[in-house]
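yo

u said u wanted the structure for the complex thing, so here. seqs first:
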Amino acid sequence: MAAKRAGDIMIPLNKYPHIPHWFTLRQAVAELEKSVLEINGRSSLPRALLVFDEKYRLLGVVRRRDILSGLEPNFLHHLSVHSERSPLELDVDPNLAEVSSGTLSHTMQKQAEIVISEVMQPIGASVASDDHLVKVIHVMIERDLNLIPVLEDGRVVGVVRSVDVFHEIANILL
Amino acid sequence: MAGKKRGIDWKRIGLMLLGVGLFCGVNFSPPWPDVIDPAGEVFQLSSQGKAALGLFLLAATWWVFEVVPIGVTSILIGVTQCLFLIRPPVIGIEGNEILSSAKRALGDFMDPSVWFILGSVVIGMAFSKTGLTNRMAYKMLMMVGEKTSSIYLGTFVMTAALTIIMAHTAVAAALYPLLAAIYALYDADNKPSKFGKGLFIGMAFVAGAGSIITLLGAARGAVAIGFFRDIVGREVGFFELSYYMAPVGILMTFLLWGFIMVFFKPEHSTIPGLRERASALSKKLGPMSRPEILTLVVVGLTVITLSCRSFIPGLENLNKSAIILISTILFFVFRILSIKDLELIPWNIILLFGGAMSIGFCLWQTGAASWMAINWLGLLETAPSFVFIMGVSIFVLLMTNFIMNVAAIAISLPVALVIAPYLGVSPEVILFSSLVMAGMPFLLLVGAAPNAIAYESKQFTSGEFFTAGIPASVLLTVVLALFVGVIWPMMGMPVTLP
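structre next:
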């Protein structure tokens, strides 16, 4: 069994939906809502957007959940009080949303103007295009990622999604 | 990592060396002159006393500028005492060493007062973890209704009430998200407003006012009582402290409410719909769970036992630290807390309190505190006792804004308690008035954790906090003067010595 390498199952960079880093959450939502990925005859909905800078370098990834967390009202945000003296992590009761439920859609409209770079996830891990599938799986599990950039000579050439990995595993098993 | 500067931090190195230089300068200087107290007794500053003064300057420099975490400065306090043999060892009648210098210096880090603090921190953890604080806060919200003036009052009373049973930092941390949610209903755009400033600044102020009422509200109380016991030789009970402090704390809570109403009068008089939403919120919580009930019972029994020591003859010999630590053990016996929670104990803070005990006792046992006190006595000799009490109090008030309240206590109390009898002032009034002031840093955000938490609301600048803090501090000083001059003597506290 000759299992594939990262480069074989990746999606080329230009095929995956992407946005510049100055886009707002609203624009990101619009982009995600209209994007459909057509890969090898299977169509799927992207779970994330790639974020690029002015020089077309990959800055990070913004996932659906990053956008949703950016839209949350401020008072629900997990709060860390940065103080040398006693770093505090404040846990928030999610039921508090009840208190201002009437104003939540107003809040979201306002939060939607935040720029994407404030909520995006910087690139934490990558694989090389000649990396073995097993390594890709390991990195995904270890770093809790669904999308990993693939590098070739230090340049990002594409991304591997967990669904592509899963599909490849299914081919091997079934 | 973006935004992190990598260069050498010369300011930090300079401040660290300043502290070390002060220690070396004082420690290795030639002997200092003796002082003579009004009764004619000669006080010699021993070489250990001199070293203690140097260590005090080193600790103060490192604590004030926080060049390393404050708990680490505490470790330095212990280590320096051991290496320079600063603490006099206890020698038995046969000349054998009963307690070595190191054992005395480092033993203070686990003084019963520090154990008491540990127990009170764990009570706060149990309240937060079981959700009891949220439940109480939501109940309060249902009671206060929709008028902004009563929201102020309800929030402040709730804050103060919670600080009676748990540390004010934990109270502020628990109430902050609730206040932020209420504020989102007041102003959907979350822009700063007078109501927002009043709500969060007021919460921080009142957390301080409430925290003085019992020994559970803040750790400084336990530390101060520890000094008092060693220096004056008298034990102040859990109930006795609350007996004198509760009237001050309660009066300040209501006065601060009035102050906030005037200083930050809300733009709108009501928040429509708040009551209805609060009851929906309360319903979501459902009935009390077993861990909640158990926590309430354990804490209730602990507080009752602690208070009853003053009334029931058989109980007075029970150590208060041992009593509170039973609650700690029970939380783990009933699986309310787990090993993870035990690991979350803020060691920086526990070490800070240990270090404060150690430097305070060091100044006292080496005679450095007495020497300093007699030196300053010359300046104060003609001062009326009332002026002296207020002078010490205002000193503590200023210090507590700049450094941790417990450090302010550790620095001022050993000296003030020695001076007091010379001026005919009872040590009790010094203890209680210092504790009142130490609890309420209204000027600077670094003064107390609730200030820093309130600041996270982004409703006010540090300048606005300072501006509101000036009249509030004046108000506090007037209230304290009233208690020192009139109310405490009426309640039976000795203010002057016979």
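Chain B has 22 helices and four strands. The beta strands of chain B are 35-36, 42-43, 90-91, 97-99.
cya
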